[in-house]
Amino acid sequence: VQLQASGGGLVQPGGSLRLSCIVSGYTSTPYALGWFRQAPGKEREFVGGIAWTGGFTKYADSVKGRITISRDTAKSTLYLQMDDLKPEDTAVYYCAAQMRWGRVEVKEYLYEHWGKGTLVTVSS
Q: Greatest CA separation found in the chain?
């Protein structure tokens, strides 16, 4: 499974940004796709995830209400819409695929495939 994230950049506080992640090369459908982020000097953390087939979503409490995760299965693309961005949202954002079926997981070790990250900088 290959994942390619894009859409990062510089945005002012209060602004919005949408990240995309193209998923390809899979023979078995992932159960879920997730977004993680790693801020400078911090560990990588779960942002949110979506069940690829059913569309069920799960969000981290720190971003709930400000982000929306969606997917377009026909385009094999995952999205992360971020609104009201804050400087603390500055991080490298990664998309990842969870192959194990069951529920949308929050632990990064349960995601088997990872894309290269895309940098989001929130600054005035």
A: 44
